[in-house]
Specification:
Length: 405
């Protein structure tokens, strides 16, 4: 029974991801991503090619920190639901079968991510640190075992809640991998691999022992799974609205003096759209996150064309993600009683798009030009950005409105 339940839930979850993948991996984003990845690969290739024969001081810490951060990708997926605490409680004795399947699924998925990270780090290991192939092989085995141990800790908390404590999670997810990676990268021996194996055996023993004497922590595991799913939903929500992401409303009374007032504007939607954008966290929060991501990437990249691509892609994502805001009042019957036409409503939304995109353009240009000022680059980025603002807020928006009318 538990095998069938796992298969159904995995198929349902994969169908959900497949359904939204066509919106996330759309043609525009794929093209932009290819250019973006190509630029990063070119910069990385040039960096590795120009490294000296003697490793620089930052190379080993960069490998350790990079692999440690990469290890955090790929959280454990149990696909448990809130109703399971009621309907599956009588079948708790069969849960180990279900958990083994979910652990296997999580580890295979996590292993693929870790192999990808190892492949990315391989040129720096061979060319920068001058490692032999066998030592790089030891590193990938240790990275996979660390991921195995990382996910074992997630499943161990199901029968021993102490592993859910912040101290244990910090030790198992951060401190222990940091020590093992530093041991291997700096001293280059098999001792760290042995320590990781001991950690795997210890957690396996703990899970096997506690499974027979402790009750399953339903609430803890369901909460962990819901948090993981919310992270997936928020990622998808960067590209398209998903019903599972529920935003909160913030009342910004102190901000009213700088916003259009209802008694002074001739278009009531000017009043509504700007306040909805600021008060609803699913829009304002998304806008702030994308702005911060733009700033971070521009600080990281010193290539002018990469910075320009980041600005243009970021503005496209911001504009596209704000389109659902146009229909946020659709279910309010009083909106349809307003003596305002659809053209006025569209014009008010277009004006909001222009304002938020212009602010994003200014922030992007300032963060990119702060370190390396170039008048020609400033003029070019400003010109391209203004063209994109006009395209997104005028013809692109009108085409989207006609298509979804």
């Amino acid at each position: 029974m538990m095998n069938d339940l796992w298969k159904k839930r995995k198929q349902s979850y994969q169908s959900f991801l497949l359904k939204y993948s066509k919106y996330v991996l759309n043609d525009h984003f794929i093209i932009a991503l290819l250019f973006f990845a190509g630029g990063i690969a070119l910069a990385y290739s040039n960096l590795v090619r120009n490294l000296p024969a003697t490793p620089l001081w930052w190379e080993r810490p960069a490998v350790i920190i990079g692999l440690l951060l990469w290890l955090q990708l790929g959280r454990s997926a149990t696909l448990l639901k809130p109703a399971d605490i009621v309907f599956l409680s009588p079948l708790e004795y069969q849960l180990p079968v279900y958990l083994r399947r979910s652990f296997r699924y999580s580890f295979v998925r996590g292993s693929f991510i870790q192999l990808l990270g190892w492949i990315i780090a391989l040129p720096l290991l061979l060319q920068g640190l001058h490692w032999d192939s066998w030592l790089a092989g030891v590193l990938v085995v240790q990275q996979l075992l660390l991921k195995f141990c990382w996910q074992q800790l997630d499943f161990a908390q199901a029968y021993q809640p102490k592993f859910a404590q912040t101290s244990w999670r910090f030790f198992g997810h951060w401190l222990f991998p940091l020590v093992c990676l530093s041991w291997l990268v700096y001293w280059q021996n098999f001792g760290s691999l042995l320590v990781v194996m001991i950690g795997v055996v210890y957690l396996s023993w703990q899970i096997s022992r506690q499974r027979q004497r402790a009750a399953f922590a339903w609430q803890l595991m369901i909460t962990a799974e819901q948090q993981r799913l919310q992270a997936v939903y928020r990622l998808i929500n960067l590209f398209i609205d998903v019903p599972q992401v529920k935003g909160s409303i913030w009342r910004l009374r102190w901000f009213d003096r700088w916003l259009p007032s209802a008694d002074k504007t001739t278009n009531g939607f000017d009043f509504l759209f700007i306040r909805s954008f600021l008060r609803r966290s699913e829009y304002s929060g998304l806008y702030i996150r994308l702005l911060l991501l733009m700033i971070f990437l521009e600080v990281m990249f010193h290539n002018f064309w990469l910075q320009t691509a980041v600005i243009l892609i970021g503005m496209y994502l911001i504009g596209f993600q704000l389109f659902p805001l146009f229909n946020v009042f659709e279910e309010n019957v009083f909106i349809h009683l307003y003596p305002l036409t659809l053209a006025q409503r569209s014009a008010a939304f277009s004006k909001l798009l222009q304002k938020v995109l212009l602010l994003a353009l200014v922030v992007g240009i300032v963060s990119g030009q702060a370190a390396y000022f170039s008048l020609e680059g400033l003029v070019l980025q400003l010109g391209l950005g203004l063209v994109e603002v006009w395209i997104l807020s005028k013809p692109f928006w009108r085409a989207h409105l006609r298509k979804n009318a």
